[in-house]
Amino acid sequence: MKCMTVIFVNMLQEGLDVFIDDLSVYRDSFQECLDNLEKVLKRCEETNMVLNWEKRHFMVKGLVLGHQIFGKGLEVDKAKIEVIKHLLNPMNVKCVRNFLGHAGFYQRFIEEFAHISKPLNQLLKKDTSSVFDQSCVRAFEVIKKTSICSYNHYPKLVGTFYYYVDYVVGAILRQKWNNLFRAIHYASKTLIFAQSSYTTIKKDMLVVVFSLKKFDRT
User: Where are the coiled-coil regions (predicted)?
Assistant: First the structure.
């Protein structure tokens, strides 16, 4: 990220955004976008930066960092979700880890992701059974299903935001539109061993702190 920022320092926020090792080039008109793209590619040549052309998308509307931006809100990129949709049950721990990494990228769209994926996360722990039992199958199928049909609404900055926090480590940032609550962002995480022994009140406070930190960056 720092390297990318240094390379494109005078171009950032001027028709170019950088996220880790991804580039997003944009402009208001087609011609301006072409001109800006030419500048970015020239900078890549000057700095000997190698691009992965298999992952490039040229002149597309709304596709940013694996997310689809549309009129109502933010949606998962259907092309990437198709990969998850057709996956078979993982055959080993490596496959489980790869699946969670892929699906975890979209966990902001999935309510209670940490809770749902718990049986799968258990398989990644040392000195535990790696049997892909029925609880793992259910978790696997639920994540695949919810990934396919999920999206988040855009927030209205002039409205009131509501935190919905469950009893452990899940939270929702939502907003009330026409007397209906619409999800802006889902967040969740699993507890470490020490945290699992917290009292109920302390767990509640843990989730509140987690939610405030998470949604402060949303």
Answer: 27-54
Number of other residues whose CB lies within 10 A of the CB of residue 53: 6
Q: Which CATH number does 73-148 carry?
A: 3.30.70
Instruction: Please give the C-alpha separations between residue 129 and each of 46, 67, 133, 140, 182, in angstroms, as whole numbers.
Output: 52, 35, 10, 17, 39
Q: pLDDT for 92-131, tens place per residue?
A: 888 999 888 888 777 777 777 878 888 898 888 877 777 8
pTM of the model: 0.52
Cα 95 to Cα 101: distance, rounded to the nearest angstrom: 10
Amino acid (one-letter) located at 207: V
CATH of 155-216, one of 3.40.50.1000, 3.10.20.370, 3.20.20.70, 1.10.10.10: 3.10.20.370
CB under 8 A, 24+ apart: contacts of 81-89 = 81/106, 81/147, 81/148, 84/143, 84/144, 84/147, 84/148, 85/144, 85/147, 85/148, 87/144, 89/132, 89/137, 89/140
